[in-house]
Amino acid sequence: MPKDSPQYEILALRYATMQKRSAAENFLFPDDHAANMPMDYFVWVIRGCGRVIVVDTGFTEPVAVARGRTLLRHPVAALESVGVTAADVSDVILTHLHYDHAGCLDAFPSAKFHLQDQEMHFATGRCMCHAVLRAPLELEDVLDAVRHVYAGRVVFHDGTAAIAPGISVHLVGGHSGGLQIVRIHTARGWVVLASDATHYWENIQRRKPFPIVVDVMQMAEGWRICEELADGPDHIIPGHDPLVLTRFPAEPGGIDAVRVDLRPVGG
Ligand SMILES: [Zn+2]
Ligand SMILES: [Zn+2]
Questions:
Q1: Which ligand is nearest to the CA of 57?
Q2: Ligand 1 centroid – CA 176 distance (Å)
Q3: Of 11, 95, 229, 264, which is least packed with CB atoms within 10 Å of its CB?
Q4: What Cα–Cα distance (Å) separates residue 25 from each residue in 63, 66, 187, 195, 253?
Q5: How far, in Å, from the CA of 62 to the mean position of ligand 1?
Q6: Ligand 1 center from residue 177 Cα (angstroms)
Q7: Tens digits of per-residue pLDDT, 104-129?
Q8: Topology of 9-259 in CATH?
């Protein structure tokens, strides 16, 4: 990439958590089934060069209650805490349509939603005849996504696509039918927002599959793709790891907000 290539800031914003959670819920073959292993929930912001792009939209209180998660702040409030007004956002990348990544789409009335063909196919086709595969989706979120298709506001991608100079999406699948990851150019090189291609660093580093999975082979290939696209292990940002908040510099003024485009500071 030439020297004058765009460099973006990337913020990871924690909006929810699940403190009581066992390792068996995070690994297909856990070393210790009963060990407690909390999970955090994030939305992400990419900004710079006059652009603000939101990656994923989180879930809201009724879903948090129904699923036993702790909502710390509405995802829209998390965005506001770092100066991003949801109503003004022009582009939202949806990594996939699971409940914790694709709620409250209506809070983004000006946005185009970037989604993989295969994810919509997955969320509306025969896969959803199986309870185990539809469990991580909320029907209302999927219906909202379909409504936005009919409103001309979904931009479908089939594999790799450029969203802006220095920002691209890449299909990996595995965890869901059409999960995509986001590659972003920053001052420290190429960073990959892996979302649920790796929930924790431990999934990718120890090659331990997450138990919510459609295709284990694709999940394993997804780890390889993350490594191929990122400039190092610290450049791969997992979707749910509490370590993200401790390893990266805090965004001044933000709450549970860190800058993952900067070098890690600890752990
Ligand atoms: Zn997911
Ligand atoms: Zn997730």
A1: 2
A2: 7
A3: 264
A4: 19, 18, 35, 17, 33
A5: 18
A6: 10
A7: 999 999 999 999 999 999 999 999 99
A8: Metallo-beta-lactamase; Chain A (3.60.15)
